[in-house]
Amino acid sequence: xxxxxxxxxxxxxxxxxxxxxxxxxxxxxxxxxxxxxxxxxxxxxxxxxxxxxxxxxxxxxxxxxxxxxxxxxxxxxxxxxxxxxxxxxxxxxxxxxxxxxxxxxxxxxxxxxxxxxxxxxxxxxxxxxxxxxxxxxxxxxxxxxxxxxxxxxxxxxxxxxxxxxxxxxxxxxxxxxxxxxxxxxxxxxxxxxxxxxxxxxxxxxxxxxxxxxxxxxxxxxxxxxxxxxxxxxxxxxxxxxxxxxxxxxxxxxxxxxxxxxxxxxxxxxxxxxxxxxxxxxxxxxxxxxxxxxxxxxxxxxxxxxxxxxxxxxxxxxxxxxxxxxxxxxxxxxxxxxxxxxxxxxxxxxxxxxxxxxxxxxxxxxxxxxxxxxxxxxxxxxxxxxxxxxxxxxxxxxxxxxxxxxxxxxxxxxxxxxxxxxxxxxxxxxxxxxxxxxxxxxxxx
Length: 444
Ligand code: GTP
Ligand code: MG
Hints:
Elements: H1 3-11, H2 28-39, E1 41-48, H3 55-63, E2 80-90, E3 93-103, H4 115-134, E4 150-155, H5 164-173, E5 179-183, H6 191-207, H7 220-230, E6 235-236, E7 243-246, E8 249-256, E9 259-262, H8 271-281, H9 283-305, H10 320-429, E10 434-436, E11 441-443
Helix pairs in contact: 8-9
This protein binds guanosine-5'-triphosphate (GTP) and magnesium ion (MG).
C-alpha cells in the first residue's frame, strides 16, 4: 500500500456498523481471563520495618497460612534483603507469591545507609526485567517477574510521630515502588491516640513530599470504596495466627488479661481494610502501576543513560538504528582513543626503562673501570715489592756466599797452620815409628 493510501485510510472516519447476527468477539474478555488463569499470576510484597515489628505474623494472617518464619537477630551489620517465593492456589487461580523481608532494618547504630540495600534490590529486579526485554529471544511469557509490586512499610506504634529513618527510607523508595504505610501492633495504642497518630503521620508524609500509593478512583466499580479507604491511610493493623473463641466462633485474635483484640473486627483494627485493598480490590492495579509507572521510569532513565532518545535536538523522531550507530561510533572512537593512550603509555614506559638501564650500564662501567685502575695499581705495587724483595734476596745470597767463602778460607788457613804446628811438634818430640828394611831407616 502506498504512503498516500495509508494516510487517506487512517484519516477516514470510523463508521459504526451493526452486525446481522452473533459473531462471537464478545467472548474476548473471557478469552483473556482464561489465558491469564492458565498462565497464573505473580505478586511480590516487600516488608520494611524494624526487627520484631510483626511483619511475618501479618503475612501469615493476610494469607491465612504459615510461611516459614525465621526470627532476625538485632545484630545484623547491614540491612539484607531476604526473598522467599511460595506457590499458592485459591479456587483455580495460581499465585506465585514472593515475600521479601528487609532483615536488620533499623538495627544499625549508623542508619544513614539503611535504605540503600532496599533501593538496590528493587533496581536489580527492574534491571533483570529490562535485560529480559532487551534480549533478542525474549521469554516474558514464562518469565518469573520479581519486580516489587507493593512495599508494606511498618510504622512503629509510638503514638508520637514518624522517625527520620522512616521519612528518609520512604522518600528514597516512593519513585520506585507502591508504598502502603501501616501502623504495626496497633493494639498497643489507644483509640484516641491512634486517630491523632494517623493524622500526624499523613501530615508529615505530605510535608516531606513522600508519595504513598493511592488506591485508584478512576474505575467506577471501585472508585467509592477506594476513596473511602484512601482517607483511612495509614492502616492500623494487628496480626495474629492464634485462634480464640469469641461467642461460639473461633476467630483470629490476640488475647489479653483485659480482653480480646479480634484481627478481623473492623472496630478493633484496619486489618480487613488492608486485606480488601491489597488483595481483593487493588492487586491488579498494584501490578499495573509497578509496570506502567515505576518500571517505566526506571527503563526510561536507564535507556537515556545508555544514550537512547526518542527525538533528536530538532524534535525529529530518533530511530533505534541511528542511536545504535552513533553509540557504536562513540564506542569505537573511545576504544581507539584508549588504545592510542595505552600504546603511548607503553612506549613511554619502554623509553623510561631503556634510559634507566643505560644509566645503570654507565654506572657499572664506571665502577668497573675504577676497580680495574685500583687493581692495576695494586698489581704494580706488588710487582715493585716483589722486585725489591728479589734484590734483597740476591744481595743477601751474594753476602752469604762471600761470608761462606771467607769462612772456608779462614778455616783452611787455620787448619793448615794447626797442621804445620802439629808437624813441627811431632818432628821435635816424636821417634820413628817403623823401621824400613829396604831403606834401612825409621819411617814416621
Ligand atoms: P523479624 O522477622 O524477626 O524481624 O520479626 P517480625 O517483624 O517478622 O515479627 P514477628 O511477626 O516475628 O513478631 C514478633 C513478635 O511480635 C511476636 O511475639 C508476635 O507475636 C508479636 N506480634 C506480631 N504482631 C503483633 C501485633 O499486631 N500486636 C502485638 N501486640 N504483637 C504482635
Ligand atoms: Mg519475620
